[in-house]
Structure formats: structure tokens, C-alpha cells
Amino acid sequence: MDTINVMKRVIGQTQTIVDRVSPDELAKPTPCAEWTVRDVINHITGGATMFAECISDGSIADERMAKLFGGDNLGDDYKGAFKQATDKVIATFAEPGMMDKMVRLPFGEMPAGIALNIAVFDVTTHAADLAWATGQAIDDTDLLETALAVGREIIGPDMRKPGMFDPEQEVDASAGVADRLLAFAGRTV
Question: Closest by alpha carbon to 159, among 136, 177, 138, 186?
Fold first, then answer.
């Protein structure tokens, strides 16, 4: 799998969804428990910034991490803030040698390429959260299937805990891939 190109597709789909979110939808609830649409956009914007800084610097200070995941990353321009953060992370991952660089993330030390796989799963799942909450759809079902397959590879029992991923939820066998992805991530859909 060409993970950088997959991530570009993930970001493209997510940017389309974010761009279609109207200001009056920002307070809507999402399948991601206790998070509104704005909270999810804030989280993935902070996550993109965190990944870019970790890949570039090898790690990120705890204080910076707390700010990215506990503060406001959006300001008054949630669409622009997300675009700026994702442009930076793609440019950082695309630099020569970055995919093999060792990075320290909140959940361990690993090659940047493995971290990018985690981001593919995480951002696609949150894109599905946003789409569900705002009545949109992710048209790229191959991308959703890829994210679900990546999730099944990387999300083990040790990650099924509060603040990470709730237990996988049951979903009807006829459910679409977006709902199956959300259920795998612990969402009730």
C-alpha cells in the first residue's frame, strides 16, 4: 500500500466533508461519544499538527501535546485551519527518508510509516463521524475498506479502553462500510 497516497485520499475526502459543514452544524453530536462536529474537526486538526511536528522533530513535548488535544486548533476558520494542518502533515511525510524515521507518539515509538497507517485509520474514522453527523457520505468505499483493514491490523485489545477506542459494536451484516468502520471503532450507529 502506498500509504502517502492513501493518506492524501483520506485528507481529500475529509476536507470535502469539512468544507460542506455549515457553521450551524458545528454543535451537532457525532457518533464519537461526547464530541460535537466542531470537537472532531478540532481533534483531527490537532492530530495533523501533532503528526507533522512528531515526524519533523522525532517527538513532541507533553505541554505541546496537551495544547493540541486540549485547546482550540480552529479559531474562527475551521475549514482553513484543517487545510493548513493537513497540507503541512502531507508535506512533512513526503520529505525524503521521513517514512523510516523513528518517532515517539503518545502510544509508543515506531517508524513514521507505521504512524501514518494509524493516521489513515483515525482520520478516516473521524471523517465517517463527521459525514454521519452532517448527513454526508464518503463516496470512496475502497478508502473506507482500506481504513477498516488497517484498523483491524493495528487496534488490539490494549487500545480498547476509554479515551482510545470503545469495544467494537455490533452492526447489521448488511450495513455499509462506513457504518462497519464506525462500529469497529466502538461507535453505536
Answer: 186
In angstroms, how far is CA 87 from the centroid of its own chain?
A: 14
What is the DSSP annotation of the chain?
--HHHHHHHHHHHHHHHHHH--GGGTT-B-SSTT-BHHHHHHHHHHHHHHHHHHHHHSS--HHHHHHHHHS-S-TT-HHHHHHHHHHHHHHHHHSTTGGGSEEEETTEEEEHHHHHHHHHHHHHHHHHHHHHHHT-----HHHHHHHHHHHHHH--GGG-STTT-PPPPP--TT--HHHHHHHHTT---
Taken in order 18, 165, 133, 172, the sign of the CA dihedral is positive
Query: Which of 115 and 184 is assigned the larger pLDDT?
Result: 184
pLDDT for residue 8: 94
Average pLDDT over the chain reads: 92
pLDDT in tens, 90-111: 999 888 888 888 988 877 888 8
Asked whether residue 163 carries a pLDDT value surpassing 70, the answer given is no
Domain 3-184 is of which CATH architecture? Up-down Bundle (1.20)
Which residues, including other chains, have CB under 8 Å from residue 90's CB and lie 6 or more apart? Answer: 4, 7, 8, 11
pLDDT (mean) for 12-21:
97
pTM (two decimals)? 0.93
